[in-house]
Amino acid sequence: MNASDTRTAILDTAVELASVRGLEELSIGGLASTVKMSKSGLFAHFGSKQELQLATVAEAWEIFESEVLLEPTFGRQDVLAGLLERWLSFYEREVFAGGCFFVLSAVELANRQDAVSKALVDAIDRQLAALEAAVRSAIESGELPARKDPGQTAFALHSVLINADSLFQVRHDRAVFDDARATIGELLAEPPRPRRSTSTVP
Amino acid sequence: MNASDTRTAILDTAVELASVRGLEELSIGGLASTVKMSKSGLFAHFGSKQELQLATVAEAWEIFESEVLLEPTFGRQDVLAGLLERWLSFYEREVFAGGCFFVLSAVELANRQDAVSKALVDAIDRQLAALEAAVRSAIESGELPARKDPGQTAFALHSVLINADSLFQVRHDRAVFDDARATIGELLAEPPRPRRSTSTVP
Predict the structure, then answer these.
(1) Where are the domains of chain B?
(2) What is the distance in angstroms between the Cα of A111 and the nearest Cα belonging to chain B?
(3) Residue A189's pLDDT band (boundaries 50, 70, 90)?
(4) CATH code, residues A57-187
(5) Residue A70: per-residue pLDDT
(6) Beta-carbon neighbour count of residue A192 at 10 Å?
(7) Contact with chain B for residue A150, Cβ under 8 A
(8) Is CATH 1.10.357.10 what the domain over B56-187 is classified as, yes or no?
(9) Distance between CA atoms of A7 and A10, rounded to whole angstroms?
(10) Which of A108, A149, A202 lies at the smallest CB-CB distance from B142?
């Protein structure tokens, strides 16, 4: 392997460790023993725990982006449906062994305001922006009604995706993905009729 | 303060630390320096890091339950709406300074399968059960149409609540609660009409 391949192989292990144990648990010493390299060898690649964490977030984003976001969509009708299906499949296949850690790690490190925390917030902003762009494209193509609020719909879809992954990691029950798909179907349907006034008749 | 009050005061600090820095960061040594007690004094209360973590999860649940779940609801029409409003308000007021950590910590510790991890999964199961019970009650009282799937609706509402808290902790923008309320409104509305067939006309 050349140096770049070695770095990528190390980082793929780092992404898995961060996914299973948490980004904050990631240390050069811990990673060195997992990839069976010397600590000084890993220091040559990353220099510090923070650099390692930043490189791990960047590698995780690259994997997520290539699996979920970067599909040829030009002229396609089902841009939004395709994006959501790839996103759910990414979680179902457990591409990250312990689940997608952008949101979890961002909340955990929210009070730190450092470069790692900023990289995680950037990743979430890009997730929401990708969803919002797909919603806008679906409105333009007539797949979604024009009355849908793109920002709010992106938040709603993001909530369902992230929580499906979290609950699957915690409860190990794939039925959560059925609930996620049914909820997405509701959220992308025609705007509902106004709520009925409450009635005392059961 | 008697011993029980002292224990509760220590645990309230532990809940805040766990909320801001993560449950796994919670140690008897770290907590001792925050509450300005000796480590041996804290050991007398909790005995081990795991006992401290379990007591912290139990205290956090008690706070969440008393603020969000335990309201007089008998004979009320708006059981579900009231529950959701109290739940969002709990996050808006940042009763837990760093956000609600049941789901985050459960995912982080999911691979451990120990008593702490089990206590966190129990908390999530009780959150989902409370939502599902309120949905069933709303269906029975006619507030929600009978066609709503209580389990799926509970998952959808849980997703919106948890993600609103997470994104608020990360982005510090209260607009996320407007998105959450609008999404809840959509999810509790009449079942939407079937999705329109796609059209190429924008």
Answers:
(1) 56-187
(2) 7
(3) confident
(4) 1.10.357.10
(5) 85
(6) 16
(7) no
(8) yes
(9) 5
(10) A202
